[in-house]
Amino acid sequence: MLNDHIHLSYEIVSEDFARAGEAASDVKRVLKKMNVKPDIVRKVAIALYEGEINMVIHSLGGTIDVYIMPNEIQMKLEDIGPGIEDIDKAMEEGYSTASETIRNMGFGAGMGLPNMKRYVDDLDIKSGLGQGTRITMRVIL
Amino acid sequence: MTVEALIKSNIFTVVNEGKVDNMISNVFCCDLLSIAMSRIPEESAWVTVMGNMNTIAVASLAEVSCIILAEGIVLDEMSLAKAKEQDITVFYTEKPIFEAGIEIYKLINHG
After folding, report:
1. Which of A46, A133, A43, A65 lies closest to A97 in space, CA to CA?
2. pLDDT for B13-47, tens place per residue?
3. Domain that holds residue B16
4. ipTM of the predicted structure?
5. For a tag site, which of A44, B16, B27, B74 has the least CB within 10 Å?
C-alpha cells in the first residue's frame, strides 16, 4: 500500500453478534479524531457496518482492512466463504438469503449491499459459490 | 428537548441512563436496521421493537440521541451491558410504536 497512510485491521468472527459493529465503530472513532468531515465519516461508518454485519451473518469469518490515505479511504473486506452465487441479484434492493433468525434480529431486508453501493464512491465485489468474497470499497476525500 | 427532559417527563421507564444532554429534535420509528442506519436524522429519539445488541450498535454508529423500546420489549442482558458501555440512554414502554412516537413528538413541539 501507499506511503503516508494509516492501516487499521480487524478480524471478523462468523455469527459473533456481540462484537458485530466494533470495526465500524472503531474506524468511525479514528476518523472523527482525525477531523475527517462528518458526512465522510457517516458514509464510511454505514458502508463498513453493512459489510461487517454481512460477514458476521453470511461468512465463515474473515478480515477487514481499512487504509486511510490523504485522498481516499479504502476498505477491504475478505472472507473465507461460502461466497455469493449471484452478485447482480445480491445487489438488488430487497433480495436477501438471510434466515428467519437473522430477520428476527432486524436484518435481512436486502439493503446491505445496496446501502454499501450508495455510500461509497467505488464498490468492487469478487466472489463465487464455494469461494471467499473480496470486497473493496473506496471513499474519496 | 434533551434526553434529560424526556427522562423527567416520566412518560417512559428508564432502562439505562447514558448521555442525558443529547438533544432530541426528531422522532424516528423503524425496526429494520439497515433502513434505520441510513435514514435516522440527527438528534433523533429512535422508537423500535428491536431490543438486541445490533440495535445498540446501530444507535451508536448513527449517533441517535436515545432509544425507546416499545410494545413492552425488554433489552436482553448483553445488550444492556453494551448500552452502558456505549453510554446510550434506553427507555421502555408498553405503548405501541406510534403512540410512543406521538408522545415524544408532542413534547418536542409543545414542551
Report:
1. A133
2. 999 999 999 999 999 999 999 999 989 999 999 99
3. 3-110
4. 0.84
5. B74
